[in-house]
Design brief:
This is Cell envelope-related transcriptional attenuator domain-containing protein. Belongs to the LytR/CpsA/Psr (LCP) family. This protein is α+β, with helices and mostly antiparallel strands and about 325 residues long. It has one domain (about 50-320): Aminopeptidase (3-Layer(aba) Sandwich), CATH 3.40.630. It contains nine helices and 14 strands.
Length: about 325
């Protein structure tokens, strides 16, 4: 009998230890989650950039929230303080995301695209929307670029992220690199002016420095169209990698890099909400779009869009954003 009593008392202790372990685990998860949230929100206070227009595009009747289809303009800036240059976007990408069907569309805008730049009141290369505005009035380059892209495509740009090349390299390295498929062998000089990097045809795993060279090359073959396709290839992979669980273990490094190298008008809370909502977008639901045009040499090289091309692509993006489309593009149906 005494033995049975002791056994019963031992059995009653087991659930207590189990509950204690569970409590410690839950507390640990909560504390770790709070730590991540605290650091994320703190880091994003360093990245926050308030646009003069406020929190709403002039092409919106009201501001969007994380439940709406939204657009994001990504600017990869060739910014070199050592050369005392204001910098210019080497990468211009518009991303639209729709929560209803968990889909995304990615458009790379060739940097030499000839278009009207409202801030300077004339046509020029689209990447000059940043540099010329900065020279004219420091601190206006981002807003000028956003306005120029909005006018070109006739869509609202709800959010933007401006990242310099150092940030691009650091974030890719932190995420463990990217896997690409090199269409044709080529070489490209490293961004820092160092050695040439050689890319063999076929599958390749690239670190940050190599990935930057990969998305910047355009002279050996493919021109802007080839470069834009490589940019979309890398961005699509980063979207998926950035939302993966393994990225959480590197959150401190990612946060540190963001704080040093990124400006954006997305708050930490909004970014976390977007991550939860769009982190599981299937690869097959990410569509790449292209602007068709021709390289033309005038006083310098320009990319001239085909007639009606900006409106065609703009309509695709409008539909994805659940906005009314226009119907003035000549489809060739009329005789």
């Amino acid at each position: 009998m005494p033995q049975r009593g002791r056994r019963r008392r031992q059995r009653r202790k087991k659930p207590n230890w189990f509950l204690r372990i569970m409590v410690f685990m839950l507390v640990g998860i909560f504390v770790f989650g709070a730590y991540i949230l605290y650091n994320v929100l703190g880091a994003f206070s360093d990245t926050q950039y308030e646009l003069a227009r406020g929190d709403k595009s002039d092409k919106r009747e009201q501001a969007v929230n994380t439940d709406d289809p939204v657009s994001l303009l990504i600017m990869g800036i060739d910014e070199r303080p050592d050369k005392q240059d204001v910098g210019r976007p080497d990468v211009l990408m518009v991303v639209t995301v729709n929560p209803e069907d968990k889909s995304a569309k990615i458009l790379s805008i060739p940097r030499d695209t000839l278009t009207y730049i409202p801030a300077i009141g004339k046509e020029d290369k689209i990447n000059h929307a940043y540099s010329l505005a900065e020279v004219q009035q420091p601190g206006t380059g981002i807003e000028s670029t956003i306005t120029t892209v909005e006018e070109l495509l006739d869509i609202p740009i709800d959010y933007f992220a401006k990242i310099n090349f150092d940030g691009f390299v650091e974030i890719i390295d932190t995420l463990g690199g990217v896997d690409v498929n090199v269409e044709r062998a080529f070489k490209q000089k490293a961004f820092d002016g160092g050695e040439e990097i050689y890319f063999e045809e076929g599958p390749a795993h690239l670190n940050g420095k190599e990935a930057l060279a990969y998305v910047r090359m355009r002279k050996e073959w493919g021109g802007d169209a080839g470069r834009n396709e490589r940019q979309r290839e890398v961005l699509a992979q980063l979207m998926q990698k950035g939302a993966s669980f393994s990225s959480l273990t590197k959150i401190d490094d990612i946060i540190e890099s963001l704080g040093r190298n990124v400006d954006m008008n997305v708050s930490g809370g909004e970014l976390l909400a977007f991550s939860r909502k769009y982190g599981s977008i299937p690869k097959e639901n990410i569509e790449s779009l292209t602007l068709e045009g021709t390289d033309v040499m005038r006083d310098r090289s320009y990319f001239i869009l085909e007639e009606g091309e900006a409106e065609r692509v703009g309509n695709i993006l409008k539909a994805h954003l659940n906005l009314p489309t226009t119907s003035t593009v000549n489809t060739g149906a009329e005789s």
